[in-house]
Amino acid sequence: MADHTLLFLCCLIVTTLLLTGVSGFVITVFSSYGENITLPCKNVIYQDCSSTTWIYYNKTCIKLVDHGKIRKENTYRADRLSVGSDCSLNIHKVKARDAGLYTCQQFLHEGARQTVVDYPLHLTVLKISSSLKQTEIRAGRTVTLYCSLHRKTTKCDGLVRTERLRLSWVSETGADLQNTSTVTISHLSECNISLTVELQDQDNQREWRCQLTKGKKIQTSVSRVTQWTGGILNTP
Ligand SMILES: *[C@@H]1O[C@H](CO)[C@@H](O)[C@H](O)[C@H]1NC(C)=O
Ligand SMILES: *[C@@H]1O[C@H](CO)[C@@H](O)[C@H](O)[C@H]1NC(C)=O
Ligand SMILES: *[C@@H]1O[C@H](CO)[C@@H](O)[C@H](O)[C@H]1NC(C)=O
Ligand SMILES: *[C@@H]1O[C@H](CO)[C@@H](O)[C@H](O)[C@H]1NC(C)=O
Predict the structure, then answer these.
(1) Is residue 195 within 8 Å of residue 205, measured between CB atoms?
(2) Atom 13 (ligand 1) nearest CA
(3) How many alpha carbons lie under 13 Å from residue 151 in its C-beta half-sphere?
(4) Alpha-carbon distance 122 to 153, whole Å?
(5) Ligand minimally distant from the alpha carbon of residue 190
(6) Per-residue exposure over 128-148, b if at least 16 CB sit within 10 Å of its own CB, e if not
(7) CB within 8 A of 30, min separation 6: which ones?
(8) Which of 117, 95, 115, 99 is nearest to 107 (CA)?
(9) In the beta sheet, which residues pair with residue 30?
(10) CATH architecture, domain 131-226
């Protein structure tokens, strides 16, 4: 019961924070699908993490870490989480559905009121998805790769504007890819861009890279290799 009250309070704090939308207060963390990441906690009181609680919020509040311990029971991803020696939250092999708001809170003991303010972080995950399954990829087929910035609780346009973000498909040298006779690049939204390619023999083993920049600085990137076995589609 006490636990529910607390969680409700945590939620209230997080929700208030979202609604007030104090810009610049919530730090945005940019990650790429499959990466191991660390979310820092900057309000630690007890260095052994016994005061640290981590809350995850997407539509509901989920307590991931309780007094320094991973909660095994209610999270599908408990096995991918760990608490760092500095009470940071490590997420192993980040997935698109890990995107959302995380906040680090401090409670001096069970049932205590929260001390110090939240340390909220907004996690975004960059991921490529494909219109074709790996087994369908071969020369002669047309495939579309979507590169999307997954986020929860924030709208794409607002995030892109305040953080000055840009998504692009880039070459090995980091230059923006241009449309060619076989490649078409489209901006479906500011958080979702596509690359459609009519696969040629020379695209076997080719790596397609999508990059997220903030201002002039590269934040993160993801790539997908188009590959198949057996090369020639038609031998005359
Ligand atoms: C993530 O961490 C695991 C275990 O610590 C390690 O085996 C793996 O190589 C790491 N992955 C990346 C992409 O760094
Ligand atoms: C919120 O997260 C929980 C667990 O982390 C997950 O089961 C649920 O599908 C997520 N909800 C949304 C709307 O993403
Ligand atoms: C990106 O846009 C495509 C085409 O409209 C859509 O199918 C896909 O679901 C979108 N991806 C995301 C993550 O919104
Ligand atoms: C590529 O072509 C598509 C479709 O014709 C167009 O919408 C898009 O703006 C072009 N992209 C670039 C980078 O020129």
Answers:
(1) no
(2) 35
(3) 19
(4) 9
(5) 3
(6) beeeeeeeebbbeeebebbbb
(7) 124, 126, 212, 214, 219, 220
(8) 115
(9) 124
(10) Sandwich (2.60)
* Ligand 4 neighbour 186 (Cβ under 6 A): yes
Ligand 4 pocket mutation, candidates 185, 189, 198, 210, criterion most atoms within 8 A of CB: 185
pLDDT score of 94 more than 60: yes
Cβ pair 53, 83 in contact under 8 A? no
C-alpha of residue 196 to centroid of ligand 3, in Å: 13
Q: Which among 97, 98, 150, 152 is the best mutation to test ligand 2's pocket, defined by most ligand atoms within 8 Å of the CB?
A: 97
Task: Kindly report the average pLDDT of the chain as a whole number.
Answer: 86
In angstroms, rounded to a whole number, what is the distance separating the alpha carbons of residues 59 and 199? 40
Domain ranges in the chain are: 2-8+22-124, 131-226
Residues with CB under 6 A from ligand 1: 35-36, 92
Atom of ligand 3 nearest to the CA of 96: 13
| pLDDT reading at 77 higher than 80 | yes
* 148, two tokens: 């999307």
- CA pair distance 15, 99, nearest whole angstrom: 16
Question: Which residues are 128's β-sheet partners?
Answer: 147
The rounded Å distance from CA 95 to ligand 3 centre is: 16
pLDDT in tens, 18-68: 554 444 467 899 999 999 999 999 888 889 999 999 999 877 788 899 999
The CA-to-CA distance between both ends of the chain, in Å, stands at 75
CATH code for 2-8+22-124?
2.60.40.10
